[in-house]
Amino acid sequence: MLELQTENRNIFGKKLEPFRKKGKLPAVLYGPKEKARPIFISLKDFKKIWDEAGESTVIQLNLGDTKKEVLIQDVAMDPVKGEPVHVDFYAVLMDKPIKASISLVFEGISPAVKNLGGILIKVMHELEVEALPKNLPHELSVDISALASFENKISAKDIILSKGVKLISNPEETIALIEAPREEEAPASEEKIAFEEIEVVGKKEKEEEEKTEKEAGK
Question: Start and end of every Large ribosomal subunit protein bL25 L25 domain (predicted)?
Fold first, then answer.
């Protein structure tokens, strides 16, 4: 199990900024049987673990006097730098099922896209499931090779779940489908436009010429 070292924290608000600059990320630990506990973690170590575990894989927090199994519950980001500035950890009970949203990963090649020029439409990007914390999947695979025609679609019930994992999302919810290629209206031919312009100009010149001849013959 991935493990993250922690330090106790009694610094809050604007006073946290100098610590962030030193690579210390403020966080809080809480849960059903856990009093909220402010902590510091290493920004560098957290980013590495977050990338690997996401928000649906249980990790362990080393609190010095004890260790806690947790999920990364929420990550606040700096809108300019794109870096984490605060993290919420949720202490799970390993013997109690919990609900979590699991990311969908689309794999394979759709024959309807490859052979018919169809457009893959991803309707959903995550599914809600329920399982014991240790059984929560990191991600769920969606095999789009089953989409062979424009009539095919993949629903939530089609996703293969491992033993002990229960689908909470609506099983009839569409995850992915294929749309027929959009036919663009062909623009008018430049040659045709040019011909029509010449025809109009020529007609006008002919009318003026006939008018001049009539006036000369008077």
Answer: 4-89
CATH topology of domain 3-91: Ribosomal Protein L25; Chain P (2.40.240)
CA–CA gap between residue 169 and residue 173 (Å, rounded): 8
Least Cα distance to 167 among 122, 107, 104, 100 occurs for: 100
Q: Where in the chain is the domain with CATH 2.40.240.10?
A: 3-91
d(CA 185, CA 182): 10
**Cβ neighbours for 74, distance < 8 A, ≥ 6 positions apart:** 87, 88
Helix (H, G, I), strand (E, B) or coil at 46: helix
Can you tell me the distance from the alpha carbon of 132 to that of 97, in angstroms, rounded to the nearest whole number?
Answer: 4
Q: What is the pLDDT along the chain (218 residues), one digit of tens a residue?
A: 899 999 999 999 999 999 999 999 999 999 998 899 999 999 999 999 999 999 999 999 999 989 999 999 999 999 999 999 999 999 999 999 999 999 999 999 999 999 999 999 999 999 999 999 999 999 999 999 999 999 999 999 999 999 999 999 999 999 999 999 987 655 555 555 555 555 555 555 555 665 555 555 55
**Are the C-beta atoms of residues 40 and 6 closer than 8 Å to each other?**
yes
Using only C-alpha atoms, the chain has a radius of gyration, in whole angstroms, of: 32
